[in-house]
Design a protein that fits this description.
The structure holds three protein chains of three kinds. Chain A is mostly helical. In chain C, strand 1 and strand 2 form a beta hairpin. Classes of the chains: A mainly alpha, B mainly alpha, C alpha+beta.
Amino acid sequence: MDQKPQATAEDPVKLSEFEARIAAGESIEPKDWMPERYRKQLTRMMSQHAHSEIVGMLPEGNWITRAPSLRRKMSLIAKVQDEAGHGLYIYCGTETLGVDRTELVDQLLDGRAKYSSIFNYPTLSWADMGVIGWLVDGAAIVNQTVLAKASYGPYARAMIRICKEENFHKRQGYEIVATLANGTPAQKAMVQESVNRWWWPSLMMFGPSDKDSPNSAELLRWKVKHKTNDELRQRFVNLTVPQAQAVHLTLPDPDLTYNEATKDWEFGEIDWTEFYEVIKGNGPCNRERLEARRAAHENGRWVRDAASAYALKHRAATGTEAA
Amino acid sequence: MSEPIVAAPRTTAVANPLFEYIVRMADDRLVLGHRLSEWCGHGPILEEDIALSNIALDFIGQASAMLALAGQVEGKGRDEDALAYFRDEHDFRNALLVEQPNGDFGATVVRQFLFDAHSVLSLDALARCAHPQLAALAAKSLKEDRYHLRHSSEWMLRLGDGTAESHARVQRALDELWRFTGELFESDAIDTAVAAQGIVVDHESIRARWHDIVADVVKRATLTLPGNVPMASGGRRGRHSEHLGHLLAEMQIVARSHPGASW
Amino acid sequence: MANDSNADVTDDSQWPLWEVFTQSKQGAPHEHAGSVHAADAEQALQNARDVYARRGEAISLWVVPTSAIVASMPGDAGPFFDPGNDKAYRHPQFYKVPRGVRGL
């Protein structure tokens, strides 16, 4: 895939012009010159993001058929559909870097590509639908708002669309949480139990500690990322703790304390063993998620083939140009 | 499973035929929308996942509005959720066609197409009926269902005239689902009762036009129209296939586990 | 992936890429909204509507096979786009108009 084995093989003049454009806050577009490394990093980052959206449809999709009211049923379908759309926008953005979606899909399905580890956790109660919207979408928003200013044009543009929709998802999620927290004793217990399971995995969504994050420095220099993992994680915690307090839910962290001086909610140590195990493929649902995607892909093959065959036949018949 | 085409006469009088009439339409859309929502995350390609979800949303939205209206007509304080989540199988009035399992994508397309072709015709008639709220609901749903028909028709063509495999799958689905189409055109005392209220859907005329639409698409899709078969019946009277029980068990479980709760 | 003599069989793909342009309201220009994959034009139109217009964001859609689009090269930017850079009269700011006159 890499035509130049090392970054230093890039034309130094072009490289410094590129770095200057980045420093000036310019938008890099698909046909602009870019270092191979930039292209590779972006392809990796964007495709991982797209894969996450697609796999992310599954934990929530799990509760569509059991949604307890028609309004919630429709909201949940719409949310999962939005996630499909987000994956689609970002896959299309990734394709502008010169890779076909067929290849991207293959990378996900044969385990070569990563996706956000949070989706390897199971959804075990209806309350998870609220908690995921509140915590998981909430964390994604903190991560993503800065991506709307990413240096790569197609990514930034996709992110603007996505951020608009994600804000809505988070509000919906929190509304479900508040309803349950103010509901029957059984509902209160359901939502508290759900929070107990999702809190720490949500914190892990921000990735490893800065000191353990190899790609961050480069991505920051290229203005693809604008803040570090730890900075974003802290921002999320500060936003979320008051939201939990407002609905009288506790967070499963006995070390959570407010620091008056820094105005930060300091939190306990994350279990990085769990984090790395899940990333390695040993989370509760890693296998199931990929199996579901593989099955959908395999079962859909004859459908995709049929549509292609039909288009071929009719292009020949009518003489119209298609791609 | 098979019963004669003419519906058996009711042994008990129907207290509120208009309620029953609206519930039939509503249940069709609720059950079909629910079935389509099962595809979320499992579609043959991303774009089609989005398309099917859109259609599912349309139908569940229509069902919600129709159930709300039905509840008002019934006048016993049941809203759309009470009707959707707290009725048992024998009180559901959907046609047997829509409760059939999704099967493969081809079976889903065929089920959809057969339903859509009927829906646009019956809603078109209802949009002109004497009941203003029902007419308005029908008109709004008609717009959506015309789009659905376009979508399902195109897929009939792509799959029927695609590859040998897709052709075989769709032909099989068409042959298997054909026996559920007769029920769509049944007429009974409830239709007679609402006709007296100015709600008239001429089932025989619709059947002929439905047949034209279906035959045309089937032909262009290089498929074969199934021959005459004994038609299944019972859904309109609450007598369903075994599939509905499982569907409702899943759909209703959370709501029923917490009676009286708000969501 | 079959590669036999059956002319029907194609290599599995995610279908070709199409670019989508949407018009948000009467009189507005069509703007690039993004891309979709589709096997044929009718499907591209439906997919575009489902992905980019399902919330009523558009009253009109255009879809174009991505391969049909011809684009200028970034390297052209200078000579291609700036011939008038040193010619002030090409710029509308040159023409002083009374304030408050709309539609110019």
